[in-house]
Amino acid sequence: MKKVLILVNHDVVIYNFRRELVERLLDEGYEVYISSPYGERIDDLIFMGCKYIEATIQRHGTNIIEEIKLISYYRSIIKRIQPDVVLSYTIKPNIYGGMASSLAKIPFIANITGLGTAVEHAGVMQKISILLYRMAFKKINTVFFQNEENMRFFSENRIALGKHHLIPGSGVNLNHFQPLEYPSDKTIEFVFISRIMKEKGIDQYLEAAEYISNKYAFTRFHICGFCEEAYEEKLKIMQEKGIIKYHGMVRDIRTILAGIHCTVHPTYYPEGLSNVLLESAACARAIITTNRAGCREVVDDGENGFVVLEQNSKDLIEKIEKFISLDYKTKKKMGLNGRAKVEGKFDRQIVVTTYLNEISNISNLK
């Protein structure tokens, strides 16, 4: 039985966005190992048939001792499992998993799910990251990119040249995320779905929510996602004032989208390709988002939503007001346009098939 080892920094990275790939691998007889910090989705993955190996990853840590420990940890599990191929997602599993796979001479496929702030901005951390990527990806088989801007950055910095492959993000499961009935227009409901952190544009969303809700009594603003400590008190106060409704982590986002007219995603974080936008569009919801890599690929301005300037609350307010001013039929049509767009370009089966082909090519070469 062939073995696949998957390295990630969070269980949701696999279960929510790569579950279909895991299912296909299991169906085709692969033994699938997943290395990740423990989370509630791990039990679901084990139930599917995966084998789990717990990992400790400091997602934003820079302690050199902890980083060396992670490389050593990956080396030890690769030596023990002897996988036929290693798949990795997110920055640290990509870099340190790549180094460990290279030392063990195991085929390796990485997915660039976004550059991260350290790599996007010029400086010492960017130079260090480029050096680490060059070392990690020196013997890599394939590097998957979710947007052209990230792929261009790797090309310009001569990282894994000739191994690049562009895919439509994580894709979206079009059977799971079906068009939802459009809600009535007695109220106009907006939602922010993301980790609640500054770079995701939460400050701009909250400013817009306060202004719009005071001006238009029929509007409602929802927030879903894990809240970083810095925003806990602010959300509590704004909810008490009736400006927002905070739902916390939502296991099935379709239950929220069913009552929503438009998803607002004012991020300026270095995205790969936004799953929030893909899932919202697949459910036939209009989207308002920033004109940056990872977001612009999903929105056609004026067709299935609106584009806003980064870190610009005034522009966000104007675009929300523009959406409010549309008649009901046009709002609904925007959502349907989004569904048509993801059907044509972002079906998750495209991503699954591409992965299976790459893994099969590696197996044939062995």
From TrEMBL:
This is Glycosyltransferase family 4 protein. Residues 3-147 form the Glycosyltransferase subfamily 4-like N-terminal domain. InterPro entries: Glyco_trans_1, Glyco_trans_4-like_N. Pfam families: Glyco_trans_4_2 (PF13477), Glycos_transf_1 (PF00534). GO terms for molecular function: glycosyltransferase activity. Residues 185-340 form the Glycosyl transferase family domain. Keywords: Transferase.
